[in-house]
Amino acid sequence: MILTPTATRQPDSGPLTYLGRGSGRTQSFHLRSGLYAISWEARPALPSGIGCSLRGSLQTTDGRQGNRAFEGQVVPGEKRFTGVESGYTVSSGEYVLDISSDCVWSVTVSQTRS
């Protein structure tokens, strides 16, 4: 598992982009109260042509607040997939992305309205 935050981000409000391979949790990050969107892109880790899947959720670090999951899959023979889920309402606090995947992926959390 590799989880790497990008170096470019605006503190507290995003956009925050994490790059990874496989499953795991990101390091914690702070979000201001507001409405957020999560976008992602994934591709198979190996060029075998069998596809891969990505499922994740935005959660508070204490596990008390979770948001609906986002997910998608690369169909066999395809090279990548992308997706966007909007309407994540969050309270100010510390969050993580919990990812379950067998892909190479990037996930971005962006504030759409404060």
Task: List the SSEs and their pairings.
Blueprint: E1 2-5, E2 16-21, E3 24-25, E4 29-31, E5 34-44, E6 52-60, E7 70-74, E8 81-90, E9 93-101, E10 103-113
Antiparallel strand pairs: 1-2, 2-10, 3-9, 4-9, 5-8, 5-10, 6-7, 6-9
What does this structure look like?
It contains no helices and ten strands. With 114 residues, the protein is mostly beta strands. It has strands spanning 2-5, 16-21, 24-25, 29-31, 34-44, 52-60, 70-74, 81-90, 93-101, 103-113. The chain has a single domain (2-113), classed as Jelly Rolls.
Characteristic key phrases:
Jelly Rolls; five-stranded antiparallel sheet; 114 residues; mainly beta; 10 strands; elongated
Mean pLDDT: 82
Instruction: Report the top-level CATH class.
Output: Mainly Beta
Quantity of strands, as a count: 10
CATH topology: Jelly Rolls
- Describe the biggest sheet? 5 strands, antiparallel
Low-confidence stretches: 4-10
Q: Helicity level, as a percent range?
A: under 10%
Strand adjacency order, main sheet: 1-2-10-5-8
Distance between the termini: 33 Å
Tally of domains: 1
H/E series = EEEEEEEEEE
Beta-strand fraction estimate:
over 45%
Shape: elongated
Radius of gyration: 14 Å
Count up the helices.
0
Strand-pairing-aware structural class: mainly beta
Label the CATH architecture: Sandwich
* Quaternary structure classification: single chain
